DNA sequence: CAGCTGACAGATATTGAAATCTGTCAGCTG
DNA sequence: CAGCTGACAGATTTCAATATCTGTCAGCTG
């Protein structure tokens, strides 16, 4: 709204880009739109991001990182020795939080969710990093469970990857249309039960 | 090639449609093309299929049914009392066969596979029936395992659904690009191990 | 003189007129 | 007369002209 007297930073450009994407959608959001929203010429945007693709990738990374961070709280006191909740509950909570967060985003603002689907499809690398991040969180939960004698897992990394893949139906955005169908909650619980049963020592 | 003197049947139209889809792809395959391939006017095609969408749906169903049939052999002597292989091997074989079949189709003829991906996306109902069919096959294997005392499952239907969902990464065509990446084989084995461990009595 | 502007060339997207396709049906044909 | 044809209206797609956008850079400005 105001003529933005602050210095032009990468951060401010990213915020404006998110806003433009929200307003116009991924197909019609242009670098000129972003510059106009900031009250600068589009040449200035190119001073901070080499290409439009790089700008969109940065927006994608930011968004995926926010998701990772919101989950890291559940991985919690890993290695701090306080024990906390039992490993099984922790793992179940982590997946429930992931599923709930994704489902809420898809349900609350379908258009914005669709926009981010397009962004993730064109930025496979950023998604790969995000998945590696999530699998890392899972690995730490599994490792803690093995250490506590609650889980049996020869190789926590492999097990973490297996858990991630086996639950994709409930967090991969491509299944979003199916998340609202009746029975989804039951399906989720059934998969979790089966996986946790396979994990028990 | 030849002027096809045989009577015009739904079956012959479906075969010609598959051929036209193979040649022109899903975007450019027209009803006029199908009629031309058969040496008839396009009005005759509409005598057997009410709309173009109905014709494409029938082609989709045929294709999905062929996949189901190729797996039904593995469900095999369910209930015939001969025992056969142990339930765990049977289940593993079934999933291996499903994964191998999908991966072969995607790898051997990527264009045709992409064509059928488009068809399945526009025919959600047919896909739903196909999934129900596959889950039914799984349920029978699980039930046989429970009867033999090898598997623990309160509700074989629920368990079958869970097994299906947990393995989607390895048969849902949307993941096809990832099937050729290194480590996929290991990921598949890890998921299967975890699921079978969770299933054991 | 660091940071920004705006004109520019080539690439990409939009638009509207023309071509093709879908679905119908009255009538032809064997 | 059962089954097929082909002309037709409205819907959809194609294509080429036009407009917009991306990315660069010489020069302006505070």
Written description of the protein model:
Two copies of one chain form a homodimer. Chain A has 201 residues and is mainly α. Chain A has two domains: 1-49, Homeodomain-like (Arc Repressor Mutant, subunit A, Orthogonal Bundle); 56-199, Tetracycline Repressor, domain 2 (Orthogonal Bundle). Chain A is built from ten helices and no strands. In chain A, helix 4 (52-75) packs antiparallel against helix 5. Chain A is elongated and about 60 Å long. The model of chain A has no long low-confidence stretch (mean pLDDT 93). Chains A, B: Keywords: DNA-binding, Transcription, Transcription regulation. Chains A, B: This is TetR/AcrR family transcriptional regulator. Chains A, B: One of its GO terms (molecular function) is transcription cis-regulatory region binding. Chains A, B: It holds the Pfam family TetR_N. Chains A, B: Residues 7-67 form the HTH tetR-type domain.
Quick tags:
homodimer, transcription regulation (chains A, B), mainly alpha, Tetracycline Repressor, domain 2, Arc Repressor Mutant, subunit A, 201 residues, transcription cis-regulatory region binding (chains A, B), elongated, Tet_transcr_reg_TetR-rel_C_sf (chains A, B)
